[in-house]
């Protein structure tokens, strides 16, 4: 696992400025971004002689160890000397099986005292937090802990980095994370947090009013600073504008190079015209211009650039290759900008296009040298390439094949020259092969790819990925077809095995859903036929007792009356639960009756008005289809009740000759796009119900569509109708 972090980056420099008492958070969006902060944070602490604690999530300790090793940390030695402690959440956050802020404060105080007694200069701690998504008792006090931790660290020789994955946690929690940390690390920047809320304000009364006052004060102070910056910027702009007007008017490419930071601070627009590359690419990477330099000249130009960086003026001529394929000759000169004191930090450069002059001087010599060089490079690549290379004429007859291609098929070069590509191609792939040859030879495509099977000399077939292109002749018409051939047999076998595994998993999911529905039906029947009947008998006995209760005391008669009422309520709840588990209407009268019954009951229980658009006549589909559609309605209405904030819902069922369509609509506030994407991908705990709906529909070869916006959400299931075999 490679980390894109070096000791001279801005991030590393900022991390080195951290000190005991600091409380900061790292908000990251990828594993690379996460480790690029957490691992250097630990490395710096170890280098300073601090004791470091890393609290890893379930299953991440191995990745953390590997990343530390890549960063140059001797993990085993650090652990053996007690300089580094790798712990899980159970050893810290959930020591007693639940989260307790008071215990955590004691934990950090004791850990700091222990580190100091062991001779370490301070305690440095960081912990992962994704385990919070799996829930634990006491986590409702997590933000209280984060807010109070800042105050506690002020009295301890300890600093703490809290890690949060922005892709997994909801925005509301991330907002509270920002409010409770004086410093925030985000996208490589270590920032003092102007939105930090002190603990007494975050946890105390009138939090909103006090936060408004603080934000308004920050706005006023920021405006004063920005006003001063605008004035200074305008003055600087006038000076820069005069410089740009001069630089942009000259016909040469003009640039300024800061050699200390290795970045281009200015390049004239002429660069785009001459080099055919954007100025933005050069600003982003000062060495990107080397990509344009001819391979034969690149090393010489790189050496000249190093001399220029040291303060030596250079004057070089070299070739560049533009994106359109054209080549140009460039004369480039650089001059160091003297500094009042110290070494050279800036270099000025001028590049001009001397292509025409160079062609007039030695056009023929350059062409011959380029041809010889190209032929030599081609022969070297052709003979030593690990990928098969084959050359064929326009008719498809093989002209030459390299050693890798010969070994791939088991034929010698002489044997292959007697074949066309048709002779060694699997019959099932001939039509597609002819199509790509047509695209190359007649339709002018520059490159095509095809996965196909070649016949080995021993008779077996080999899967290959073939990339084809055309080599033109002097008249620009196709002279040869060139193919690069890679053996992908292992990958194709793996793909076939993967497809088989996916099919098995889908079949297993289908059996599990069938088993679930059967179990619901069994439990519903048991509740109806046993528990409900027992409760009915109990009610009858109580009623009989009630008729002879005149001799009972008033309190006993009240208790008897209440028992009868409880029995009636239990009978009602048992029947409702039985019907919700598996409505008898579904088996007896079909989907339409079940939907009418469930919609009426849901409306009564939830207060949400449910409109039904159902066909008057409806040929019953198979029971599996009816069950899947009923469960989708059930899950969708539950989601509307829990999340949508809608007072109405609509259920539409329709069919045509080939498709059965079920749609459930609401007029709520909709699902955010990011959340909808997360739900449909099956990520996390959120969206499990929708994932189950998708699986049910896929088992029936249908598809589930969800459209959501500010005016509501529509869940639509489309199922192909199964036609009778007769």
Description:
It is a single chain. This protein is an alpha/beta fold and about 725 residues long. The protein folds into 5 domains: about 10-205, Rossmann fold (3-Layer(aba) Sandwich), CATH 3.40.50; about 250-355, PAS domain (Beta-Lactamase, 2-Layer Sandwich), CATH 3.30.450.20; about 385-485, PAS domain (Beta-Lactamase); about 500-580; about 590-725, Heat Shock Protein 90 (2-Layer Sandwich), CATH 3.30.565.10. The protein is built from 23 helices and 22 strands. A 7-stranded mixed sheet has the order 3-2-4-5-1-6-7, sandwiched between helices. It has a 5-stranded antiparallel sheet with strand order 9-8-12-11-10, sandwiched between helices. Strand 15 and strand 16 (about 460-470) form a beta hairpin. The relative contact order is 0.04. The model is unreliable at about 1-10 (pLDDT under 50).
Secondary structure topology:
Layout: H1 10-16, E1 23-28, H2 31-47, E2 51-56, H3 61-70, H4 75-80, E3 84-88, H5 101-117, E4 123-127, H6 142-153, E5 158-165, H7 171-179, E6 183-186, E7 189-192, H8 199-203, H9 207-249, E8 253-258, E9 263-267, H10 270-275, H11 279-284, H12 295-309, E10 314-321, E11 327-337, E12 346-353, H13 355-384, E13 388-392, E14 398-401, H14 403-409, H15 413-416, H16 430-441, E15 447-455, E16 461-472, E17 478-487, H17 489-547, H18 554-581, H19 584-588, H20 591-606, E18 609-613, H21 623-644, E19 648-655, E20 659-666, H22 673-680, H23 688-699, E21 703-709, E22 712-720
Parallel strand pairs: 1-5, 1-6, 2-3, 2-4, 4-5, 18-19
Antiparallel strand pairs: 6-7, 8-9, 8-12, 10-11, 11-12, 13-14, 13-17, 15-16, 16-17, 19-20, 20-22, 21-22
